[in-house]
């Protein structure tokens, strides 16, 4: 099992699924980071590890004051896909971070958006992660940090960290 402070995790990677203890192994030697949205990813091997991270939430604006709250972190989903056809494709959606709230009017930050990996010419179950919630703005004097996003469809699904608020973390 894996323990990470202040995180909600579902699932466990086992050696048979590509894990070795608390770190991933299983012969994965190449890393590809995709930042282009709505991309078709060409599968390079019959077994790949996929990590999906949602966009982080934007911070709230202080509204003329000096205090606001942080946005929540995006969720994460990690999955091992095997039995894939080399050269087939997967659809990739890359979530974006939320915009920060207005510094003059003290509006809330915007939430981050969803990231996902889904079937293209290769059929898989969708792996996704929601974005973090926006932080509270200073316009109402309520400084609540944004909630963390949630991963789904992975062997490991991790909730993003809550944004820190002036009066505590988001709930």
Give your account of this protein's structure.
Strands 4-7-8-9-10 form a 5-stranded antiparallel sheet, with no helix packed on it. The relative contact order is 0.25. It contains no helices and 13 strands. The chain has strands at residues 9-10, 19-20, 23-24, 39-42, 47-53, 76-82, 89-93, 115-119, 127-129, 151-152, 156-158, 164-165, 168-169. It has 171 residues and is an all-beta fold.
Short recap of the structure:
The chain has 171 residues and is mainly β.
List the helices and strands and how they pair.
Blueprint: E1 9-10, E2 19-20, E3 23-24, E4 39-42, E5 47-53, E6 76-82, E7 89-93, E8 115-119, E9 127-129, E10 151-152, E11 156-158, E12 164-165, E13 168-169
Antiparallel strand pairs: 1-11, 2-3, 4-7, 5-6, 6-11, 7-8, 8-9, 9-10, 12-13
Q: In DSSP terms, counting alpha (H) and pi (I) runs of 4 or more, how many helices?
A: 0
Mean pLDDT: 79
Structural class: mainly beta
Instruction: Outline the biggest β-sheet.
Output: 5 strands, antiparallel
Low-confidence stretches: 1-26
Query: Gyration radius, to the nearest Å?
Result: 18 Å
Strand order of the largest sheet: 4-7-8-9-10
Based on CA inertia axes, which overall geometry fits? elongated
The secondary-structure element order is: EEEEEEEEEEEEE
Beta-strand residue percentage: 25-35%
Approximate helicity band: under 10%
Q: What is the number of beta strands? A: 13
Distance between the termini: 26 Å
Oligomer: single chain
For this entry, give a set of tags.
four-stranded antiparallel β-sheet, mainly beta, five-stranded antiparallel β-sheet, 27% strand, 171 residues
């Amino acid at each position: 099992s894996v323990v990470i402070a202040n995180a909600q995790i579902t699932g466990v990677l086992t050696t048979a699924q590509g894990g070795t203890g608390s770190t991933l192994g299983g012969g994965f030697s190449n890393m590809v980071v995709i930042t282009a949205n709505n991309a078709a990813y060409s599968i390079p091997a019959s077994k790949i590890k996929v990590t999906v991270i949602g966009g982080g939430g934007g911070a709230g604006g202080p509204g003329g004051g000096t205090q606001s709250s942080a946005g929540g972190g995006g969720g994460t989903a990690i999955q091992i896909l095997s039995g894939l056809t080399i050269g087939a494709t997967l659809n990739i959606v890359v979530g974006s971070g939320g915009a920060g709230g207005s510094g003059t009017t003290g509006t809330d930050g915007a939430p981050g958006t969803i990231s996902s990996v889904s079937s293209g010419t290769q059929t898989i179950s969708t792996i996704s992660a929601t974005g973090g919630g926006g932080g509270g703005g200073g316009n109402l004097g309520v400084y609540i940090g944004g909630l963390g996003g949630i991963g789904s469809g992975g062997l490991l699904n991790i909730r993003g960290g809550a944004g820190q608020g002036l009066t505590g973390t988001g709930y």
